[in-house]
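Table S2 (continued). Query chain:
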Amino acid sequence: MAVIRHLERAPITEALVDFKTTLPDDFPVEKLGSFNQLKEDYPNREVQNAFQAQFRFGEKGTFEADPVTTKALSLRGYLFRSKDGRIAQFRRDGFTFNRLAPYTTWEEVRDEALKLWGVYREVAQPERLERLALRYLNRLVVPPRGDLDTYLAVTPPVVPGLPSHLASFLMRLAAFDPQSHYLSNVTLALEQDAADPTRSVIILDIEAYTDTGLGLTAEELLPILERLHVMKNETFFGCITEETARMYGG
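Corresponding output:
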């Protein structure tokens, strides 16, 4: 594992903070699309609909959606985009703030998420917050036939008889802390870089979340987000090696 520290060129492709709550069935979802205070920072608005689809076997044995029976069921919410890679999603089932690359800082992500959560609360008036999650997607570019142990502290088990160089793998781990009731999911995947076949890409997807002890105000949620961020950092640096940390400016 690597020592936890700031990486100047962190390989983060997306960071998101997700607030899950359920609004009453009779809540007018159209109200979530009328945030005048978002127009300056998030000028582009998109409608999000819930869909129903039936699938059938295609000619090659794959599942395909039937365009005849696929239909929009109801308005799910709205998505607002900024010009610098920020997204605010206001939905019937909650709110999500996405920070796309280029990543800035945790403080910027945290503060913007809490500010927009306050906007969502003011209009939607949720009675409770059911789940709070922090998720980071990382993309690590490595030589195509390099030793994974050079870059990852956590690697797939060695299978007797399998060739020594892996072309790809997918591994998912889930963990629970019984004292804090915080949970985490880690997904590791190795794939070929579609843009450059001479390189391989390691996808490191980390989610830290909790569904207990949640309030509604920024003051109540701030220490929880900080703990989730610490958990995310411990997981990230626990998955990579010092060599990888140095590759990204650490």
